[in-house]
Each structure stands twice: as C-alpha cells, then as structure tokens.
Design brief:
about 260 residues; alpha/beta; seven-stranded parallel β-sheet; 7 helices; globular; binds NADP nicotinamide-adenine-dinucleotide phosphate; binds D-gluconic acid
Amino acid sequence: MVNFSLEGKVALVTGASYGIGFAIASGFAEAGAKIVFNDIKQELVDKGLAAYKEAGIEARGFVCDVTDEAQVNAMVAQIEKEIGTIDILVNNAGIIKRIPMIEMKAEEFRQVIDVDLNAPFIVSKAVIPGMIKKGKGKIINICSMMSELGRETVSAYAAAKGGLKMLTRNIASEYGEYNIQCNGIGPGYIATPQTAPLRERQPDGSRHPFDSFIVAKTPAARWGTTADLVGPAIFLASEASDFVNGHVLYVDGGILAYIGKQPK
Ligand code: NAP
Ligand code: GCO
C-alpha cells in the first residue's frame, strides 16, 4: 500500500501565515502532520495561528526572518527541543519585486535573492543535520515558472528561482545517501496576494491584460488556486516519493507545455 500519510511527522513551512504556504501546511495537517510555521511579524504569526485554529489545526508559529541565520538557527533549535526533529521542510517564504532591470537598484535585487535563494539555503542547512540523525527527511523548495522562463521586470526573482532549482538538485545530490529527498514544486500562476496586482480589474471593469495573457497561456484556461498545490506537496512530503529526488514538479495547468492560445 503506497503511503501518502504524514501521521506523526513534524513539518516546518516557512512564510505560511497565508497564501501557498498556509494551504500546503493545512493539507499536511489533514494528512496527519504537526504544523510549525514562521512569519516575519508577530501580528502575521497571530493571524496565521487564528486561521489554522479556525481550520481545526493546532499549529505552532514563530516570528523569524528566514534571511537571518541566527534567528533561523534559534527557531530550529527550539522546534527540535519542544516538538521534535523536523521531518519535512517547505521553503515557501518568498518575495518578488517587479521592476525593469535597468531601473532596479542593486539593493532591491539583493533583497529578492536574499529571501528567495539565500534563505532556503540557510533554513535547509539548519534542518538537514537533524534529518541526517533521524535517517530520513523531506525538503520541498517552492520554485516557479521563473525557474525555467524569464519575463520583463522579474530579473531578480527569476535569477533566485532558477538558482533555487539548482540548489534543490544540489541538496538532492549531496544528501540523498542519508535518505533525504529534496524536490521542488513549480507553481504556475496562482491567485494569492503576491499575484493580486496582476489580476486586479481595470478602471473600466475589464480584466487586467496580464490576467487575460496568463489564461491564454494556460491550457487549463484558468489561474491556479492554492488548493491545486496541496496534493503534489503531500506526495513529495510522503514516503510515496522516497525515490523521487532532485525533481521540480511543475503544477502549472500545462503552461510550460503550451505555446499559448492563438489570439482571435
Ligand atoms: P505571498 O502571498 O506573498 O506570501 C509570502 C509569504 O512569505 C508571506 O507570509 C510573507 O510574510 C513570507 N515572507 C516573506 N519574506 C519573509 C522573510 N524574510 N521571512 C519570513 N517570511 C517571509 O506569496 P505566495 O503567492 O503565497 O507565494 C509563496 C511562495 O510561492 C513564494 O516563494 C513565491 O515565490 C512562490 N510562488 C508563488 C506563485 C504565485 O503565483 N502566487 C507562483 C510560483 C511560486 P509577510 O507577509 O510578513 O511578508
Ligand atoms: C510574475 C508572477 C510570477 C508568479 C510565479 C509564476 O510577476 O510573473 O508573480 O512570478 O509569482 O512565480 O510561477
């Protein structure tokens, strides 16, 4: 019997007060996992805790900036002391800055790289020793269409998510012998606060041009929802994927396979 259960596992999902992280953590809880999450501000951790409680989930929340190695190490040590070894890590926390490259300040570029690439390195580095001791572990990095494709204004984000794909492959290569599997999930265009600016209605009530563009580029002819990511995440977090390693699973409705609908 293939085991998709996460019963008794401890799952840390970073940046999971809402959005994709919240949906994945909620799905993990339904599959039996104990949920731990962090956010950068106490009020967001509190908001997240209330949302988990409303969903019937007793989560633990920590205030932690994932780019701060000292904060990350302290959070992981506290989790391991109070709850147990982290069996599943989802590096979900992320930001985007949509600025034409030649107008982007170097500091802005660095900020995106820091959260979207350096932080998954920092958090994975903190969590892997416990997984090695336990003899198993699952790391899931939330990549992106921009791990494969570029587009105007997202140079920093694409560089980070492309790097995150290769960090995923390298963790898989370096720690596979310890029965640690590291894979990525590459969401397509998902309706969350991060993409809200790309979907907002125009003053005349029409759809945002980017909204129409994405629907035409997606065979499923719709934006993804956070719920679309839960099954793939449970698969990669469970024993059902113990021989899947270094893979980025694109959950994009078919965008990467499709040239796009011909304009009428
Ligand atoms: P979101 O709604 O913007 O949520 C991002 C989360 O990360 C927020 O809770 C945010 O907390 C947290 N965060 C940001 N910087 C942090 C830091 N330094 N330390 C700790 N937490 C931090 O984004 P989302 O759409 O759910 O995306 C989640 C992940 O999926 C990101 O990695 C994103 O790149 C990726 N992704 C999204 C899409 C999409 O279409 N939405 C598609 C592909 C990939 P604050 O609110 O406090 O900043
Ligand atoms: C953008 C979007 C995308 C999505 C996602 C696609 O501005 O193009 O924000 O980057 O967030 O990463 O997979």
